Amino acid sequence: MIADVLADAGERMDRAVEAAKEDFATVRTGRANPQLFQKVLVDYYGTPTPLAQLASINNPEARTLIVTPYDKSALKAIEQAIRDLPNLGANPTNDGNIVRVTMPELTEERRKEYVKLVRSKGEDAKVHVRGIRRKSKDDIDALKGEVGEDELARAEKELDALTRAHVDGIDEALKRKEAELLEV
Predict the structure, then answer these.
(1) CA separation for the pair 42, 22 (Å, rounded)
(2) Is residue 156 helix, strand or coil?
(3) In terms of Cα–Cα distance, which of 115, 94, 119 is closest to 170?
(4) Lowest mean pLDDT: which of 12-16, 26-30, 123-127?
């Protein structure tokens, strides 16, 4: 029973760390990266649809992305969705076949804003991991009458180690992203 609780907590924490890394990838650095558009939803015939399902995204140059829609009728909607993206500052242009997105050069001030944004996302991820720990701790405490005190203490230590490892994983990803953002 304790092993099940710990295994479930580990899986959920792993997913939280992966979600944090994906979130970090959506914050732009000096280079244009197709992952920036990972969470873009395009209004496609009244349905919010992920951009990756509507178009291919290529990176021909350091600061340019080319979005080639599979359905040319979605061109205007794709262009509008990219233009409405917060924290991007990109200026998409549409030539009738593709959407060309040119990223502006990052200023020092903008880089610092992005570092703050990434730190905030990292803190949110850590809070989520700690929430998983709290729920798992409650689940372990609920087993008090069924298992011995020593097993409960051991499970709690394992849960703390698991939480610490996942928080460290988020911190490591955060450091890498900060270094990437501050690199000129």
Answers:
(1) 19
(2) helix
(3) 119
(4) 26-30
Q: Taking residues 35-63, what's their average pLDDT?
A: 87
Answer for the pair 177, 27: CB distance below 8 angstroms, yes or no. yes
Three-state SS string across 61-109, please? ECCEEEEEECCHHHHHHHHHHHHCCCCCCCEEEECCCCEEEECCCCCHH
Q: What is the pLDDT of residues 82-130, one digit of tens each?
A: 888 776 677 888 888 899 988 877 788 878 888 898 999 999 999 999 9
What does 9-69 look like in DSSP terms, one character per residue? HHHHHHHHHHHHHHHHHTS--SS--GGGGTT-EEEETTEEEEHHHHEEEEEEETTEEEEEE
Query: In terms of residues, how long is the chain?
Result: 184
Q: How many CA atoms lie within 13 A of 154 on its CB side?
A: 7
User: Can you say how many angstroms the Cα of residue 100 is from the centroid of all Cα atoms in its chain?
Assistant: 24
Which token pair is 45? 């015939």
Residues contacting residue 78 through CB under 8 Å, at least 6 positions apart: 42, 51, 54, 55, 67, 69, 99
